[in-house]
Design brief:
By secondary structure, the chain is α/β, with parallel strands linked by helices. Helix content is 37%, strand content 19%. The chain is built from 18 helices and 23 strands. The radius of gyration is 31 Å and the shape is elongated. About 1% of the residues have low confidence.
Amino acid sequence: MSDKKIKSALISVFYKDGMDELVKLLHAQGVAIYSTGGTQAHIEKLGISCIPVESVTGYPSILGGRVKTLHPGVFGGILGRRYEESDLSEMAEFKIPELDLVMVDLYPFEETLANTSEEKAIIEKIDIGGPSMIRAAAKNFRDVVVIADKADYSKLHDMLAVSNGSTTLEERKSFAAKAFNVVMNYDIAINNYFNQDLIRPLRHERSLRYGENPHQASGFFGNLDELLEQLNGKELSYNNLVDVDAAVQLIDEFNVGTFAIIKHTNVCGIAQRDTVKNTWDAALAGDPESAFGGVLVSNKEIDAETASAINEIFFEVLIAPSYSEEALTILKSKKNRILLRQLKSYPKADQFKSILNGTLFQAQDEGNFSEWTEVGARNSSDAERSDLEFANIVCKHLKSNAIALIKDKQLVGKGCGQTSRVDALRHAIEKAKQFNFDLSGAVMASDAFFPFDDCVKLGDAAGITAFIQPGGSIRDEDSIQYCKANNLAMVMTKQRHFRH
């Protein structure tokens, strides 16, 4: 029978808040309650008697509380299979009580870590018995209910109130799945403390409204609050987070004042100028159409003048290291507008992606060029070199096939996500024409090699005077010879930047 009535419970929790109503209901339904230490004292203050765990183990809490429940009398009661006659026989022989509900939480390891650097205090908050009991109860979900999160107290209360103290197999399995997740994240936190220089698995689940589309469930695992502080606006969505990630990765590439606009993880506007306001104006001018509903990012403080200009358009998110008080007042005029303060640089973490029947892993794309080799008719001028370096970084943050056109540290045209490189260039040139940019003297960056000389020919016809690309095509020489014949500069970096 899949339905099981709870007749006995082991309750041993660090956090007592929120448990009273559930304990009262268990008592009213005739459940025998086993407990320990502070939890037992709390329950007895409610006027409910408990059976001390010591009466099962035959031992008091010892070693300063390090050993309380680690005993066959406890674990036998949790792990004993009610459908196995041999288990029931052994439990009767050794006077081991059946435990139908295990309500246990974990010592506050992460909270302690956040509040002190004292190793002794941190180590003492590594729970041993708690995870062991939770795992044991979750393993035996066919017979045992496990509650490992105080957020589930009210859920179980309502469930038992309706069912008169019984749970279904499906409900027990659901609680077991949650319990394993709780223990997993706890162990990850401990692992990260001891292995701070190793890969840090994702943790701290945050439920999101939905994924890329409303019919997709989603969540965030990680400590976002270490990187960003939200100052205004609605809850960040899945798509917001993906674009914010792209924006922060991009802006951290620059040491001088830069403003960028991101749309669907692609750069649609970016510039560098002498003031934040001028930088914003130049970034927006690059593609004011695509900027609508975008994610904006600056590596300089947002002042009132810039805030007033930004306030004129609709955008989803603005990220900056700081805001003047007047700027915040202006920008907070829209209650749903998300304002984020970036607290530190983007962590250079490895990247993972679920695919097929496994997971792909790769290191962060940190490089911009491993070599700088001038292969054209002439060396690039100082102004061209400055723009080429800027263009190469921008192109790295566009989806392949990608082309970035830069003039005077401003993105004036871009083509991204195209299935051929020449189409990406055509798109970039059309974008520049759409917003009346003169491409004479502009430079061009490509995220991968030119397979033919059609890109340099088309670029030359549009007025572009210098190119940067990784090289590596068996027909590199075609593009090089065209540049040499037409007084064009070309740089090869030997470092491509594919981005899917």
